[in-house]
Amino acid sequence: MILRKNITNLDNQVVKFNFIIQMLFAILVVTLASCLTEDDLTNPTSFVPIVVKTTEATAISPYSAIVGGELSAPQSRQATRGVCWGTTPNPIPTETDMKDQGQLGAFSFNLSNLKAQTTYYYRAYATNSKGIVYGTQQTFKTQALAIATIATTAITGITATSATSGGNVTSDGGSFIVTRGICWSTTPNPTITVTTKTSEGVGIGPFTSSMINLQPGVIYYVRAYATNTIGTAYGNQQTFTANNYATISTIAPSNITSTTATSGGNASADGGSSITTRGICWSTTVNPTVANSKTSDGTGTGSFSSSITGLVAGTTYNVRAYCTNSVGVVYGANVTFTTLSTVPVLTTTDVTSIATTTATSGGTISSDGGAAITAKGICWGITANPTITTGSKTTDGTGVGAFSSSLSALSPSTTYYVRAYASNSAGTAYGNQVIFTTSNVLSIPILSTIAASSITTTTANSGGSISSDGGSTVTAKGLCWSTAINPTINDSKTSDGTGVGLFNSVITGLTFGTIYYVRSYAINSLGTAYGAQISFKTLGLAIGQSYQGGVIAYIFKTGDAGYVASQTHGIIAAPSDQSTSIPWATKSSNAITGIAIGTGNANTSLIVGKLGVGSYAAKLCYDLTLGGYSDWYLPSQAEFLAIYQNSAQIGGLSGSYWTSTSSGVGGGAIKFEYSDFWWESINIPLRVRAVRSF
Description:
- By secondary structure, the protein is mainly beta.
- The protein has 6 helices and 49 strands.
- The radius of gyration is 60 Å and the shape is flat.
């Protein structure tokens, strides 16, 4: 009974507890219902919180970056989503922040106008009517400003002196490109500070540059460059070689004769420029050029053959192939060859100085036949065509050219046959045969006189030719002359050596306008012989002729002081003015001077005697030494008029000139001006032309 009662009480308590629980739930439902809108009741998920994620920043540059986020929980209304940022932590949205309307998923914004090398804080966010939700805060740092990024363009248009390149600026490094171009050098890694460069504008993008004034065949290094506020960036290095001279080789000579040969060349490369001419050149000296003998054998590359002509036998020649392009002339290797030899070519000199036992001959070797002359001379005998093995001979050295030989131990009144000879490796050759007969007695020399030439007022040229010494050595020879006929060595003479043959003489110390008689002379042991007499007249003096330190300006006439009928006298003017601005005197001299021709010298001495030292016209002339003469003076009025009237022949008279004639009026002097004479104050500076008399 008691147990059942207890159980009944327990059941009643459980019922009461359950009732209380149900009542509490009902009260909760009613309370929640009173807080929900109609939309909340119809869309039970709308009150689920918004979930926003901040994504990592990308495309970070000095001034920009891309930031964003992601909405990853359902929501019933369209939310506003965006990114807020700043340079301090936990940024909040502002009117200028990036935002848009969107649903679930990722979103991003491009931030611009940022500061370089700066740390930024940012958060994604989303808002709806229930409020704002932030993603996790993240940070990024903008890049620092950098040099540009540039690439160098490949080299094109290469010539011997120019080429084309350029570059492409793909990034300005965050700073405006203020200049760009290329730089180049013959050493690697050229820069704009030490090498040649171009300037091709500003900004990014491609550009083209031209290189000029290059050296042919030289390797160049090229880099594009771009400069911003940070510095200068360089592109990759390109290399190239400026077009070079062409390449050519010389073909060894063949088919060699005494006067011809065959050679040629092979132009294997044109050096980047068309070959406009080619051939071979040759000379007897090493490394001939196109300035020597040459051939012209077409154009372009390839092999060619050339004929060499006009050679001398037995001579060593140097040959080089050549070709020309726009860069210039280039040569192949120097190759030598020797033409075939022949016997020498020579003539025999006529016999001279024939005496009873001696005579003189010789020869002239015009060609050695292509081989060195090892012996030369003359051979003679009393039978025709003497040889070096059958008659007497001389030995007169080696080599080509003229030589003289003496015949000795001859017999008087005997006929001899003479031939010059010359020997080389090809053999012995003989000149033409000459015949002569020795004398039976000695005599004085035989000679002639050469006509006078190069005649001046005081000199002339002449000479003589001694064809025979008369059998005795000529110990003296020359010319003798006189104003009388048949001059001898007791008159004026020259001494022009000894021996026979031609000689020239210069006759000096002559008088102008005079007839002279001249004879050559030669002396041997028997006496003195004379050539035929000739005569000539020295040149006379004339106005305008250079003479005794100046120019003849006037020749005295009848009535002039100093005139002599049988002689030539006159006035010589200095070739140019002695001054263009000098006074007649620096103070009054009270000198009364002459006017007439012949008074200028005395005038000058009188003025200088009264005035003494100083800088004035008469003193300037008085002190002058010109052309080896020191007797110059200031011309008188009449003397100046005389030289002025011949100014066309002497030249240079222009302006106002002082004369040595005093005016006698107010202490002045006479000047020449505008083709007439005028009074002038003595302290006025005028021109001066000095004269002297002869």
